Amino acid sequence: MYWRRFNASLIISLVALLVGCDVPRPTIKIALVAPFEGRFREVGYDAFPAMRLAIRQQIEAGGIGNYEVTFVAYNDNADPTLARRVASDVVIDQSVLAVIANFRTDTTRAAQPVYSAANLALVVPSIPADQVPEGPLVFRLGPSLAVQEAKLASNHCTSRSASMHSTTEQAYIGRITTATLSLLSDFQSSAAPGLFGLSLAGLCFTASSPYPRDLPASAQPLSGFSQVSGGPLPGPGSISAYDATRLVLAAIRADITAHGKPSRAGVAEALRHITFDGLLGQVTFNAEGEWTGAPIWLYQYDSKLVAHMIR
Known about the structure:
With 311 residues, the chain is of the alpha/beta class. The protein has ten helices and twelve strands. Helix 3 runs parallel beside helix 4 and helix 9 crosses helix 10.
């Protein structure tokens, strides 16, 4: 009888102990894949703190349901072969529910089939929508080349060209093309003045995201960027990465509301039907996964190689 009473007391004590302890919440992740080294490293430097900041703000606002939200970041070095290999690593982690990548046409094309085969939604910021393969799991945030070129033409900016300092690479032209994007992520790149020098003076270019100075609405949401980055200020890519992260977080919330727990398939389905108000505007995707209302900004370099917005 004593042992029975002892065992019963022990069981009651253990149950009480367990109830008093915090049960670890399941972890869900968003993956970021971008170049963090070489000529294109500013892309990753813009995106990484922005994603971290967006997730931190979500946690401070109460998180997402009963889940621990975090992210993983990978360097693809702006190399298509490495981008495909990194994609294979990303999809292995079943806690990753969506990926934001690769910020370049060639690396995105290389990695996209890997993500789609694993039923993982791919959100593509910045690069032209019509340069990314369509698919039920691909969500494209950048305006198409045709729309960008029409914007340039309407402002008589298509004739200006910039010649290369290096004879080993093709000339840079005033329109956004696949050749342009093979040299730099875009004309906003901080590497552009170093590559082309004063030949950039007078050059017009389009951008899918403005410089933060030209979007006052971004000041407050990105006010903690420098604290997260360790000093550097946000760049144009920070705005698009911040919006992309918040977009995915909203899709995860919608999936949990609809199904009780999130999944890769559920997040992708939520993205197909989402209406999301971001810093860049209200995002909705058409049947081809394109944000047809993606905004465009027009800029021109002055003689000191400072880009000014053309209104």
